[in-house]
Amino acid sequence: MGFSGIVHKPVGTVVSALGGAEAGHGFPPVQQEVLAAAVWHSARYGCTSTVFEPLSGRLSKACDAVAALLDHIDPVIEKSADRRHIVPVLERLLRDGNGATRQLRRLRAAALSWR
Asked: What is the CA angle 38-41-45, rounded to 5?
């Protein structure tokens, strides 16, 4: 399976799970401005701090938001066998951070080396 298959199949499964609003178990609607602020917050602070948690509509610890997401999508990803792809990615993000977190870490390390 090529890279696109590894990425697109699990992503499609998650999108299907998140889009379950018509069945009564999707995420509540969120205003566009709130989503824009959530994206900015995540880009600025990374995913090792707080992140927007759509079920509550508030900032939560990343580990709590990921746990809520997994609880929500687990029935779908378990049926599709994509859980084995999705969970390790989420665990790595929580452990190592996203691109913003890694950039901040390198910037801080470089600043310390200048002293």
From this structure: 145
> Which residue has better confidence, 48 or 27?
48
pLDDT of the residue at 60:
92
Share of the chain above pLDDT 70, in %: 76
SS (H, E, C) the chain: CCHHHHHHHHHHHHHHHHCHHHHCCCCCCCCHHHHHHHHHHHHHHCCCCEEEECCCCEEEEHHHHHHHHHHHHHHHHHHHCCHHHHHHHHHHHHHHCCHHHHHHHHHHHHHHHCC
> Full-prediction pTM beyond 0.70?
no
Beta bridge partners of 51: 60
31 Rama sector, left if φ>0, alpha if ψ -120 to 50, beta otherwise: beta
